[in-house]
Amino acid sequence: MPKNELIGKKIHIQGIVQGVGFRPFIYSLASKYHLTGWVRNSSAGVDIVANGSTLNMASFLDEIRINPPPLAKIDQLETIEVEPDSFTDFTIIESHTEEGGFIPISPDIAICPDCLRELFDPADRRYRYPFINCTNCGPRFTIIKDIPYDRPLTTMADFKLCAQCSREYHDPSDRRFHAQPVACADCGPQVWFEAKEHAKITGGEAIQTARHWLKQGKIVAIKGLGGFHLACDATNPAAIDELRRRKRRSEKSFALMVFDSSAAQQFCLISPAERALLESKEKPIVILERKPNCALPAQIAPGLRTLGIMLPYTPLHYLLLEPEADYPQVWVMTSGNLSEEPIAYANSTALSELGEIADGFLLNDREIETRVDDSVIAELRGKPYFFRRSRGYAPTPLRSPYPLREILAVGAELKNTFCLTRGEYAFLSHHIGDLENMETLQAFENSISHYERIFKIDPICLAHDLHADYLSSQYAQKRSQAENLPQVAVQHHHAHLAACLADNLWDSPEAVIGIIFDGTGLGTDGKIWGGEFLIGNYDGFYRPFHLAEYPLPGGDAAIRQPRRLAAAYLWKAGIPWEEDLPPIKALNNQEKSVLLTQLEKSINTPVTSSMGRLFDVVAALLGLRQVINYEAQAAIELENIAVCPEKGKYRFNIEAGVIDPKPLLEEILSDLRNGIQANLVAARFHCSVVEMVRAVCDILRKETGIQKVALSGGVWQNMLLTRQAIEGLEKDNFQVLTHQATPPNDGCIALGQAMIANQQLK
Ligand code: ZN
Ligand code: ZN
Ligand code: FE
Hints:
Elements: E1 6-16, H1 22-32, E2 36-42, E3 45-53, H2 54-66, E4 73-82, E5 90-92, H3 113-119, H4 163-170, E6 191-194, E7 201-202, H5 203-215, E8 220-223, E9 228-233, H6 237-247, E10 255-258, H7 261-265, E11 268-269, H8 272-279, E12 285-290, E13 306-310, H9 315-321, E14 330-335, H10 347-353, E15 360-364, E16 376-380, E17 383-388, E18 398-409, E19 419-428, H11 438-454, E20 461-465, H12 471-483, E21 487-490, H13 492-503, E22 512-522, E23 528-536, E24 541-547, E25 550-551, H14 556-560, H15 562-573, H16 582-585, H17 589-601, E26 607-608, H18 611-621, H19 633-641, E27 653-655, E28 658-660, H20 662-673, H21 678-704, E29 708-712, H22 719-731, E30 735-737, H23 749-761
Parallel strand pairs: 2-5, 8-15, 10-13, 12-16, 18-20, 20-21, 22-29, 24-28, 29-30
Antiparallel strand pairs: 1-3, 1-4, 2-3, 6-7, 6-15, 8-9, 9-14, 10-14, 11-12, 12-13, 16-17, 18-19, 22-23, 23-24, 25-26, 27-28
Helix pairs in contact: 5-9, 13-23, 15-18, 18-19, 20-21, 21-22
The structure holds zinc ion (2 copies) and fe (iii) ion.
Residues 112, 114-115, 133-134, 136-137 line the site of one zinc ion.
């Protein structure tokens, strides 16, 4: 075909292509390549009709694929040849609505370099305006009330554009063309500072007041992008203690915010990959290793050798943390809530709920429609490894390896997320929280309705955990009855396995070895599982190996008290309760005698094969922690004291599908008696678990020929264990699948449930 022949193309693009500057991008590309025709938004993506020479058309399509706008994500680009029309120019035309169409929505994205430059440019008309944004950055999901994503359907609806903003908004050559949250100091949201018995302060002065109060050691509640933060000076131990006391959060670590990665480098060891994650447009909290000489107070993260650090992600944060001589450039920025409740996001509720915690409030009048917590990641193999997938990532859908029915999976109880599927998309929600109180349950239900509405999903099936008592399972049960929909109960660890597979776009009927190391989950035999080797895929699973069952006296009471757990494990292993053992010392005589009766008569004592519990037991034996203040504290502290490198040492008894830690417990006690340091024992324990994993995988490969291993479950948040296990298994020539875009903890459960339910619907 001659290169200058005139041809016509109809192009349809799917993905995150609206609200991200896609049409002006197409418009300017069309003019670059002398094409005529039009571009428009539709309810299913972006449509283009273009005429031009063969060569120009090819370049145009290449450039769309290769170099789209920063926030765009093209999932599909289809073209069909059409007769060239008689267009004289290229235009952006009116949006088009199709029945049932739906498109993904961009998550909220940190301020872009262009806006940041303008923010600190005295000549710019938005100089120091805390809500500066453009099509390449700013709030999205948190301000969207409904679709289509247009200003009237966002919380920006009440701010009428001034003449200058309006000009930018309507000019296809402007960076703010159709940027829905566009605003300036004349027409947009405003900040103010308020505190009891103080006059309200507005504008730049409000920000300076907040800075000043922080410097004075006070606690300030700051309304951010997805909710409120509670902030204090992270160099001031008294301020941190006071924040812990008022927030009733005694030991769980606090996240920090610093101005830039050089500032972060003063406190932590940062690899180039970690630095890239810190600076990425999603701006997550990154878990980093503290420098040995880090001067920050220990009470930021008691018992840990890591710190969770994030960089500013809104213009307001930049103004707040702006460097200045003598000014603390590192702040505690923790979610604005009372322990365990969802993060506050409305001015009125923040003032009442956080009134006892914060001395002052930095507020603004841009409303948050959907609260979204900060995301938390670590670096693994150069990529983010999620502890919490939320702001900056959700609600970007995960891709499914094949089309899915419309399913609602309601997830687990702790670290809840839910998942709605349609076509090749799985919309895994932002972090909802622990479904243990009314407020969180309300947030869960409201968010489900919101997602169903904006992504046009009408579930034909509900998937939930096998555990019928979870509030999420109860919601599914109620709803499936009310709407007469089928429901699928999914075993917790099977869901973990399926989630890890889906996360790796697994589309083969092959089965893999799933190593699911977890806290708790209900098994198909009614027992509490959590140290499981499963073989399976989306279709089903069997359980060739698991940790031996040990007693959990008092259920949750044992989980909160590793000393009870340790005593129970010793009892079961036939190891005497010697008085000098730390967990035994930590129990009084009456507690011991009650415990003994409970164990002997098996009163209120379920059994568990949980790997998480084994970590708790070892932490108690080492005298690290006898009672926990937050979930998995003992295990986290155990990881944090381990000194590596170390070689595996303790043995598990592997027999007839059961992996018994009895010899391991005995050998640990003998090491302790021989005066071996706790941090060495902790390291040896980690290596021993890895050696056990390798041994069991070797047996399974011999029996089944399976070479692929998937790692899921909350215990795989232990980075020391995870890195060593990957290394060991790869050395043994296994292909190791780890979570990519979802966390290994229960934040992934909903995705796995959806994949399994979809399979059952076939
Ligand atoms: Zn921008
Ligand atoms: Zn304006
Ligand atoms: Fe789990």
